[in-house]
Amino acid sequence: MKKSKRASRYDTAEFEREMVIEEFAEPSRADRQRFVRARRKPGRPRRGRGVRVISVSVERDLLARSDALAKNLRITRANLVARGLKAVLAAEGRL
């Protein structure tokens, strides 16, 4: 469906005007904060008090079996290790 010239001029009229600086005001504090949050890189979501990357040595066979279990449970290796640590702490009464 083709628009009439009048209708298309009406739709594009706002783009034909010159930019007028007086139409703009200083952003409010809330607007500035929202802008800063929008520009921030997303990063990883925080869990608890944050995470810490560690290096752990594990036997190859144990690692292969634990990776297979994590795959079956559809969780990550890190989640499996965290679950194991929580289970040990709970068993020792320290959780």
Description:
Helix content is 55%, strand content 0%. Among the domains are: 31 residues, no CATH class; 32 residues, no CATH class. The protein has 95 residues and is mainly α. It contains four helices and no strands. It is elongated. The mean pLDDT is 87.
Please provide the count of β strands.
0
What structural class results from the helix and strand content?
A: mainly alpha
- The N- and C-terminal alpha carbons lie at a distance of 68 Å
Q: Give a quick account of the main beta sheet: strands, pairing sense, barrel closure.
A: none
Q: What helical percentage do the residues reach? A: 40-55%
Average pLDDT taken over every residue? 87
Characterize this entry briefly:
The protein has 95 residues and is an all-alpha fold.
Which key terms come to mind for this protein?
mainly alpha; 95 residues; elongated; 55% helix; single chain
Write the layout of secondary structure elements.
Layout (H helix, E strand, L loop, with lengths): L4 H12 L12 H11 L20 H14 L3 H15 L4
